[in-house]
Amino acid sequence: MGRNDLLIRTFPNNTITFRGEVSDETCSVAINGNQAKPVVILPTVSAKELAKGGDVAGQVTFDIGLTGCTGNTDRATKISTVFVGNQVTSNGNLGNTGDATNVEVQLLDTANKVINLTNGFKGEGDLQLKPGETEASATYTAQYYATGAASAGTVEATLQYAVSYL
């Protein structure tokens, strides 16, 4: 038995999947104008505002903007926003990796409805390029969400995002 045979038998789940997309439309994507490592700053709030489970506070909006799109001159192009949370909680929110306790980060869609990230989120047509236009944006909201009486401390959560032209 050769070395490669041993590796294949030892690691039967050794498949790498590559995914991509070919589209008639391409754009540059930015969050609040930042294309690299965007950060959305939530306001400092008192722990008293997050005294019991279900309390929310500190709403802040953030924009996903597209620029430099090639633009279809004949018809509008619907573009969807895709979010995949890191450390999604049982409530479907973003888990806090900071030291404040009983606090999650909850997202709201462009219609101000709570986004459940348990299975990811695809905002179908949240962004729309009108015929001949090369820019579009969509506004989302982030807020603190209490799972119990919050303690003082830092709050940090992460999310991966993409746009889909399909």
UniProtKB/TrEMBL annotation:
GO biological process, one term: cell adhesion involved in single-species biofilm formation
One protein family per Pfam: Fimbrial
Residue ranges constituting the Fimbrial-type adhesion domain according to the UniProt record: 16-165
GO cellular component: pilus
Protein name (record): Putative fimbriae major subunit
Gene name of this polypeptide: stbA
